[in-house]
Amino acid sequence: MSAPATVRDAQPRDVPAIVEIHNAQGVAGTASYRREPSTLAGRLGWLASQVEAGLPVLVACADERVVGFASFGPFRDEEGYDRTVEHSVYVAAGWEHRGLGRALMSELIRRARRQTVHAMVGVIDADNESSRRFHRELGFVEQGQFTELGHKFGRWLDVVYCVKLLDEAAAPGDEPGHSVPPVPRLAEHPQAGDLAAKEVLSWELFGRAQRELAAQIAASGFRPEIIVAVARGGLIPAGALSYALDVKLSDAMNVEFYTGVGITLPDPVLLAPLLDTGSMAGKRLLVVDDVVDTGRTMQLVMRQLRGFGAKVRSAVLYAKPTTVVLPDYLWRRTDRWIVFPWSALPPVSTPSA
């Protein structure tokens, strides 16, 4: 399972770790075409200029240390590129393949959408297949490969440009004074606030999300033998992943924690009927839920299943900043109220006799 980690804005105290990671993972190889090592003074100035310009620098922290960072900045200086950014992401040696890069990029993409960025561009060394695959799994599309565009270590290097168009960013013509189609209305809880301020997952977007999540799982090499849904929210995502990963065995664990909007029991509680755990020792299980909010439900389920001797990993569509656990596989991070397509409409009422 991935080490518990948090993603937050970088502070000046984080710069020594950023310098160390960039020099080891970037300058020492071809993840960066910079030849001279970064310096503490240079990176402090860079962080200050990023903050002044309102551009994000994020760090991933685990075991009380910075183990990764990500940022974006202008793609080109001309005004016509003002809604296009170029990003970078680095993870410290020994911390790869634990979901930290995805956590950093998910938050970076969310920040880009908030700033109405239309396109994110990654510039990758053509021989860096790991980074190319990582970006493809995040929805980036390789738009072109350029021969001998860079030079380092005495040889010419080919470069790949990959681009992700951010579907939630406003399209050209959405400036003030232009007509923009209204956000479709969905039934919602009266305490949930305005729909425009929420994270809205449509059925179409869910179809893309579950395929991207399945691609993450497949790329990691983990092959679940049984998929376990955390009912009720995890039932539909678990079913979709069972088809996407071709896993025929599935089950569910019923857990109650939230009893209303923002109202919880003191602790999550397992409800009957209980999972048949007799044959799970040594099995590879994938636990699926729609969201980890506090993360305490997922924590309970994972602890229970590991107690029966199963090899367990977790997959979740959304994670909130308040979660105490970081899922092994995650599609998106958000701090917004989430509207899921399966719970957006009120229950179908039974006519009175």
Automatic annotation (TrEMBL):
Key word Transferase present: yes
One family name in Pfam for this protein: Acetyltransf_1
Keywords: Acyltransferase, Glycosyltransferase, Transferase
Domain of life: Bacteria
One GO MF term attached to the UniProt entry: acyltransferase activity, transferring groups other than amino-acyl groups
InterPro entries: Acyl_CoA_acyltransferase (IPR016181), GNAT_dom (IPR000182), PRTase-like (IPR029057), PRTase_dom (IPR000836)
Residue ranges of domain N-acetyltransferase in the record: 5-167
Protein name: L-amino acid N-acyltransferase YncA
Keyword Transferase among UniProt keywords: yes
